[in-house]
Amino acid sequence: MKKSALGILAAGTALLTPLAASAQTEIQFWHAFTGRLGELVAAQVEDFNASQDTYTVTATHKGNYSETLNAGIAAFRAGEQPHVLMVFEVGTATMMAAGGAVRPVYQVMEDSGAAFDPDAYIGAVKGYYTTTDGQMLSLPFNSSTPVLWVNRDRLEGAGIDPDVDLTTWNQVEEVLDQLAEAGEECPLVTAWQSWIHLENLSAYHDVPFASQENGFAGTDTELMLNGEVQVAHISKMGEWADEGKFIYTGRRNEGGANFRSGECALFTESSAGYAGIKAEAEFDFDVRPLPYWEGAGNAPQNTIIGGASLWVMEGHEAEDYAGVGEFLSYLSSTPVQAQWHQDTGYLPITAAAGEATREAGFYDENPGTDVAVTQMTRNEPTANSKGIRLGSFDQIRGIIDEELEGVWAGDKSAQEALDSAKERGDQLLRRFERAAN
Amino acid sequence: MEKRVTFKGWVLPLLLIAPQAIISAVFFFYPAGQAVWQSLFIPDPFGLSKQFVGLENFQYLLSDPYYRASFVTTAIFSGLVTLCSMVPALFLAVLADRLIKGAGTYRTLLIWPYAVAPAVAGVLWLFMFNTRVGVVSWYLGQLGYDWNHVLNDGEAMGLVVIASSWGRISYNFLFFFAALQAVPKSIIEAAAIDGAHFWRRFFTIVLPLLSPTTFFLLVVNVVYSFFETFGVIHTITGGGPQQATTILVYKVFSDGFVGQDLGSSSAQSVILLLVVGALTVLQFKVLEKRVHY
Q1: Complex-level ipTM
Q2: Residues 6 or more apart whose Cβ sits within 8 Å of residue B219
Q3: What's the mean pLDDT in B200-224?
Q4: Which of A44, A89, A437, B62 is deepest in the core (most CB within 10 A)?
């Protein structure tokens, strides 16, 4: 009964469609952006639709990153998947393991014949989403990297030169001591603790976060986040937490509110925090590269990205994929990328877009906006700094958060917490390995 | 002799129970059956492949010390939520029952919080106890108490218990209030004439007469605290700090929708189903004997 009613409806729509709409091929694009970012995506899509009349891209917001990924998975199971799905960087391994569900971007571009030069993309950005032999699996869309935000007024208030060198954590520690002595209540705060203080810390010091090239070389990977460099850093942060020099505010970016209101002196956060800080901060701020430990590992190597990439889903008509190719090619074009980079604070995905931004004088007018680009591209990425590709990574981050909270609360030593994080995370990796193979 | 009404044919009775039977089958038996079936596999998230592993998912879970610890957390949490939502509700109902003027307003105001969805209630409470801008945490700070549920597990548990119980007090209030109205006034008056004071009358007459309602609410509230408190935990603590507020149902969500591990998630649903089932049977076996209808 219900089925036949649906059948009639479907038949009706099928008959009506060619009359109602033009003969354009529709391309579904599911993303996770709201607010200002949502508007910017909508503008890009509109612009693409206006630029040609063969394809129409329909962009749909599907909730936050996790919700968008889950919506994509559920849709695939029901045979209703979109053409293009935005997936955050921690979902990369999940998407890669789904061989029959996704079509690699390099293949889409090859088949579609749209303009595509893999070498145009910045190595440290695309590296996260390419195979070990350099094939691009998904198109980097929004990428950022952690930097150090400084409230210059707070430093000055505590009698510290606001131009003080904060290149290394050793130097930061001295400043934290001075801030605490001056009675500052929030010397240092952070967002995304696992991403910044473990994942990026490892890449920046060129030490592994996980075996098998951080998971790039295979799913039989184990966490190595309890190495010397990581334990020393977390141990130091634990000390700072105990002494009131590092204030823990939560697992996500809760600390942003503390920094933007002017309470905190130093803040480790994504470079994409720029728009928010610029809009809200009523103090003199500045952006510095993420600090590193002098003499530890190979620092400074390069930091890695966070953000999302666009995956092409399987199961559509061949001509649809030609349209997808055109759309991805449009998104990668220099003017679109340069605009996106300047509007959002996200990194440009091509070197040309960065160059165009520099030539337009954007970096001179907005000092500090190029810090992230320089920091990402300062060295050719190594096996340890290309990115991290682990199954169940979102959940592993949850485990890391739990263990780190043990350190900040003084319940566990850094070594105990990271050993435990490794043990618990490895169990999830083994389950993922079995599900994927 | 009991008088029984009987139907003449089969058609009408079947038609009458059909809606309930169909709803139960579609929304309960079918999904529950699916969960049991899926708990025997390790599938890939996209449904492209799955491998049969028998009871290995259960073995994996039960050998995990964090999962076992979650049982204790759940027991503490649901015990506290049940207590904190029933005792104040009964107290308020007794007070409302004695009101002569303005009883309607008072009742309406008390029922209001029930209209707030758990996730929204979570956000409201989180805002009041926010370590930086929260009103309550500010006053506590003035009193010299440094509130920090982000790192202090006892405070985190306290906060999710309050947020989960708050809206529930209204629901329980409604039932207690209705039950109180049904207590025969003549018995109370007779006891009063015999010289029994208010609390004496309450504990020896009213409370026993309320026992069917109390029992019903106990069962319903335990089930509520096991399942429906998910929204509160998700918005306030996300299961933290460490694993202080990771109750069983939160772990089902986190394995299924954060980790995309549907095998483990299904196995946990099955375990949860068995636990709640066993608990309800236990309540009926042990407590119902002491309930007087």
Answers
A1: 0.88
A2: B280, B283, B284
A3: 93
A4: A89
